[in-house]
Amino acid sequence: MDVIVAGDRAGLAEARRTLGIGREAPPGRAALALVPTMGALHEGHRSLIRLARERADHVAVSVFVNPLQFGPGEDYARYPRTFDTDLEVCAEEGAGIVFAPSAEEMYLPDRQVGVSAGKMGTIVEGASRPGHFDGMLTVVLKLFNLVRPDVAVFGRKDAQQLALIRRMVLDLDLPIEIVGAPTVREADGLALSSRNRYLSPHERTMALALSRALFAGAEQGRPSEIRRAARAVLDAEPGVDLDYLVLVDPATFTEVGEEYAGEAVLAVAARVGTTRLIDNVVLTLG
Ligand code: PAF
């Protein structure tokens, strides 16, 4: 079946009706899974849509470059917008609905209320991008309310985003299952990102230091050794302007101590040329 494109609330409600969502789902089986995106879809997004299809009878993909989660001086204006190709990707991967609202459809001009990401929204990535996580959670909550999925799928590459969405679901009692999908990488280790297209060939080569650093850290055992090994790789690449390298608890994003046992996220953010990139790996310590 062709993908149904909805640009507003009425179109979305009509798409749900056309697909019979909310009527025919057998008990225990999810009727609708949502994959929220900002478009510029790549192989990583394809893997999210495929995972969503395994989890539910129907898949909706939202395509919306959310102005609320970009700070002044960030790349909102130049963020890649490739809607025609995105539609093809969604159709090829079997999504039933593409929800692509305008900013006017999403936000009233005198908008007052939004979601606060709390203290966790102000550390690590949130310290470098003030307000980013408030804007991200606000749009994700609105997408949940508009699309009304049973399941939503997010990439683990945005690990702090995923942790905050899980926290929002818990704190606000949202009836949605959150699924985290593994990061997809190029053969040479570069994590797929819509922002990779900003990189020149030379910058792309320098950007490989991020994943190299994470893999070097992952070979070590203790937190201090993990941080030291990863840092050494980044220090050896002068083209990489490091923002942060942290080893944190995946649920709280606070730094883990030397005796920590359990899952930890080794996360990095750096600027290569004018492009800001993030990446992470999940490790089991202790
Ligand atoms: O990860 C993204 O692409 C965005 O942060 C999201 C979740 C679609 C919200 O705008």
From TrEMBL:
Cell compartments where the protein resides: Cytoplasm
Record field: catalytic activity: (R)-pantoate + beta-alanine + ATP = (R)-pantothenate + AMP + diphosphate + H(+)
Active site residues per record: 45
Main location: cytoplasm
InterPro entries associated with the record: Pantoate_ligase, Pantoate_ligase_C, Rossmann-like_a/b/a_fold
EC numbers on record: 6.3.2.1
Keyword match Zinc: no
Uppermost EC category: ligase
Similarity annotation: Belongs to the pantothenate synthetase family.
Listed name of the protein: Pantothenate synthetase
Organism per entry: Planomonospora corallina
Organismal lineage: Bacteria, Bacillati, Actinomycetota, Actinomycetes, Streptosporangiales
